[in-house]
Please model this.
Amino acid sequence: MKLFTHNMLTSKMIKNVKVGYPLKLNAAEVKVTPSEFRSTYVSRMLPKIDWGVLYEATQSIGHAEAIPSSISDDYEKNEDFLRKAHHALFEIEVINGEMICPETGRKFPIKDGIPNMLVNEDEVN
Amino acid sequence: MKLKELESWLTRCEGFKKPKVKLEQYATSSHVAARMLYAAQENIEGASVCDLGSGCGILSIGSVLLGAQYVCGIEVDLDAINIALENYDEFFDEDDEPSPLDFINAELTISEGDNEDCCSRFNSTFDVVVMNPPFGTKNNAGIDYAFLQRALKLVHPGGRVYTLHKSSTRDFFKKKLTKSIEEFGCAVKGEVLAEVRYELPKTYKFHKEKTLDIAVDFWCFQKQLGSDTN
Ligand SMILES: C[S@@+](CC[C@H](N)C(=O)[O-])C[C@H]1O[C@@H](n2cnc3c(N)ncnc32)[C@H](O)[C@@H]1O
Model:
């Protein structure tokens, strides 16, 4: 699971959960695979990203140096920054681990790179 | 990529081993999948693609073959995701090969109303949704339309949804399109790009033939610019 995907997932479907975001990330196994860098694509995606959550995620899975703590103001012109953002969003993958709902503590396992977001009927609204 | 080439690649994709009837698990044939993706090709290359109800992954994998930058398959059934991963390995077997593909094992909320699910933050993010939704033939009438509504939320204004729906619902969909702001929360244009024959596997004992041949429309919907309310 890429950190881009983590940046999007919530536990909002659980009963009484108000925001369900961000999901706390714990990783037992992390893999880095290179992927093609397209600067226009990354700068197009950045407005969708919660940078603070991405930064926190890189910290919590042992890639503390991957990105700066705040987003660059001129990122569209800053290729060095975009490359780092690309690396964090699309190249660092959590293979095994879990995500935790910030409000209920409900755990969502990640196995073989697949996050399991399934919930039981009695957990949802 | 040429259509023939794409189709011959996609023939390598295996379908469901034990299809779950309730989930309407029938795989898109390589013939149909190749034509869908070929029509979407110029919008898929370098783009982000979502496959709703990705099943054994033929549409997700085809999107990767066409150079998508990020592909997200959302599927409720882990058995299907595992087949999709095996299929994927048929194409890209090196472990360090770049993979733009992520699967999420989740159940999309497709009931009426605006119930959020784990994927709602993806709204207005994708360039393209490709899907072959359940047709709604298993006591779940309307699920095909609910999938479409969901897909239109997931694409950004200007984004497109490539999808299959029974031809018998064409007039219904056309009517919905005339009041798209009400129905989808945004202005939407749609057209039927092709009518295809589709073989549904026999699932009822009283079906004499092994398969049921039905007419299916291949639609392209586009969320219009400046009309986003998500
Ligand atoms: C007709 S099959 C298509 C499979 C695959 N996309 C293909 O083209 O071969 C529909 C898929 O949607 C999945 N599905 C049905 N309801 C779902 C839901 N609520 N959330 C996620 N997936 C769902 C089923 O498990 C099935 O794999």
